[in-house]
Request: fold
Amino acid sequence: MAKYLEGTDRQKSRAYSPAVITEGGRIVWLAGQTTLVDGDGKDISGNFEAQTHEVFTLIDQTLRRAGGALANLVTMTVFIKEPRHGDRFVELRRQKFPDGNYPASALITVTNFARPGMEIEIQATAVIADRA
Reply:
């Protein structure tokens, strides 16, 4: 379904693939995902790490509704407010894709988000295998 081109040592260390090649399957275009509360409704405003975990959880939940999972992501655009969180984001993303099949990715620093307290937003695309 998806072929992840092997990255350079630098690309691997940053937990992304230089390219992902797909054939067939259904393409799912995910809206940008962000949150100010965790799954229990607890306020996580200003908490980069908690927001990152929750955003990945929300993306996975959306993909499950479409018949897939987080592992089906082929590309992501990640927006963060603080450049100092870039390396931590890479560590967290590595945890979410333990098989090393990382989505192609861009990591962009922005000045601000739509609501105070937001630290990260992820927009992504997934390819889910056709059902037989």
Q: What stands out?
A: DSSP finds three helices and six strands in the chain. The first helix runs from residue 9 to 13.
